[in-house]
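Suppose a colleague, Dr. K., hands you the sequence of a protein chain of 305 amino acids and asks what its three-dimensional shape might be. Before reaching for any lab equipment, you can write down a predicted structure in token form. Begin with the sequence itself:
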Amino acid sequence: MLSSLLIVLPVFGLIGLGYVARWMRLLRETTGEGLSDFVFVLAVPCLLFKTLATAVVPLDQPWGYWISYFTGLAVVWLIAQLVAYRLFRRRGPELVVSGFAAAQSNTVFVGVPMILKAYGDAGAVPLGLLLVIHLPVTMTIATLLAEGRSASFALLVRRLFTHPIIIGILLGAAMRPIVGLVPAPLWTIVDLLAAAAVPCALVSLGIALRRHGLASGIGLPAVLSGLKLVVHPLIVWVLATQVFDMPPAWSGVAVLFAACPCGINAYLFAERYRQGVADASSAIALSTALSLFTTIGWLTWLGAG
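The predicted structure, expressed as tokens, is then:
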């Protein structure tokens, strides 16, 4: 219990800092929007650029590993959008935000320290592979869903190729063959911007929570939290242990990665489109709080740590 608390404490600390700073009027309302814009336009693209440009990807792909994790991701994304549409009357980009929140994991603050503590060096490679693929895939899917609902093909292509996240992904992939030629000062700039992504996003989330509270109600955030913390890892566990054959460390990493709370990028995405912000911020806060208990359950079930 104590170790799990120490893992999620920095998340609550930075969210609480943003909340209290806004409550005490040390920060203006527009500060949160400015921070989220900075993270979405500059910091996260730099993080994706760095991750994809420098990642070591094995030639033999672990297809059972990918299928296990991303099948669970797809299922909870679809369920979240269906529930949000039918029961909570969400439409347009709000639907995408609901699916994104239920499927995308908080990897940096919760996933990485929890998984490395549980599996040590044996979990480093499967963890690294998911870190490289996870955010580009979910961001690309969310962008396609949001931009492609009413846009023509030509407009969709133009929006995608001018989208900060897509630009970061494409540049990172393009730089892989010549990554050793990138000047050190440029990498320093990229590193500084990438390092700012998570703390700035969490402070911005705290400001948003102060603004919205539980304006969307508890119903939809509770559904999204349940899908993220229970349904997603359960699907991954069944596929990774009962269907496909892989080392216990690999299946355990996939399950724990799926069991992480809702990721901050769902909130950034909502702020970008100015829709579903209350849903995303509430789901992230609630799922992070509940993950203190659910991750203990999954660690015990897996016999890890």
